[in-house]
Design a protein that fits this description.
The chain contains nine helices and no strands. By secondary structure, the chain is an all-alpha fold.
């Protein structure tokens, strides 16, 4: 009863895809730009993002079980699932190191996943809606913690977070070998055509994956570095004035 006849396969940069991206980027930049005006609604924003994260993670598991399509590869062990769990944890307990990791895997990677999504169904299929809702919620959660709860990330966290990601990837690699899965896309690129498709194969795939992961960490940190420099400069000015 959950299948929808006449559904088209997902097409990269089709009209539904482009419209969805426009909605996300417009909302995301408005969220940042109007952050001061949104401050009185902080509690509402917090639990809305929390609900989106929880829905995105639980709904797909329930959906796949109901349509009898659940398999081991659907276990919540992908990078975006890790981001979701870290964000949900932070809503209840402040942990700087947890946020450092979330910042690097939860800001730019989900956005790249929306630009080049690993899905097969087109809008208005549930998978399409759930995929973009979930991948939107993760960077919104990251920005919520930065804008409303004052989290900042030190420069040294670039290397430490990159190493942490690699440490987490080690057991995931062996789990993939055991189960025949592809969590973290470590074994090979996704079945659908994404950015990872151009990373090659074999050892070259792993090398390119490592290089890309480190570059993503550096690029992700640039706005944070600019923010910290600006805040430090303003702090020094205030100290001189006082």
């Amino acid at each position: 009863m959950f299948s929808v006849t006449g559904m088209q396969d997902f097409t990269l940069f089709s009209l539904p895809h482009i419209v969805t991206l426009i909605i996300f980027f417009t909302t995301f930049f408005a969220f940042v730009y109007y952050r001061k005006k949104l401050k009185p609604y902080q509690a509402m924003i917090k639990w809305t993002v929390f609900a989106m994260l929880l829905f995105g993670e639980l709904s797909i598991q329930l959906y796949l079980i109901l349509v009898h399509e659940w398999k081991l590869a659907d276990l919540p062990l992908h990078v975006c699932s890790l981001s979701t769990f870290l964000a949900l944890l932070l809503f209840f307990k402040r942990r700087q190191k947890t946020f450092n990791l979330l910042f690097f895997i939860g800001l730019l990677p989900p956005i790249l996943s929306m630009i080049s999504p690993d899905i097969v169904h087109q809008f208005p299929h549930f998978e399409f809606i759930r995929y973009f809702l979930r991948h939107s919620a993760i960077p919104f959660a990251v920005m919520y913690f930065i804008l409303f709860e004052g989290y900042r990330v030190p420069r040294k966290a670039i290397l430490s977070s990159f190493l942490t990601i690699n440490l987490i990837a080690v057991p995931i690699f062996f789990l993939n070998q055991l189960l025949g899965t592809n969590f973290f896309f470590i074994s090979n690129p996704s079945e659908t055509e994404t950015i990872l498709t151009f990373f090659g194969s074999g050892n070259m795939y792993y090398i390119n994956l490592e290089i890309a992961a480190f570059m993503v960490c550096i690029i992700t940190y640039i706005p944070m570095g600019i923010l910290l420099n600006r805040e430090n400069k303003n702090l020094r000015v205030d100290e001189k004035m006082n």
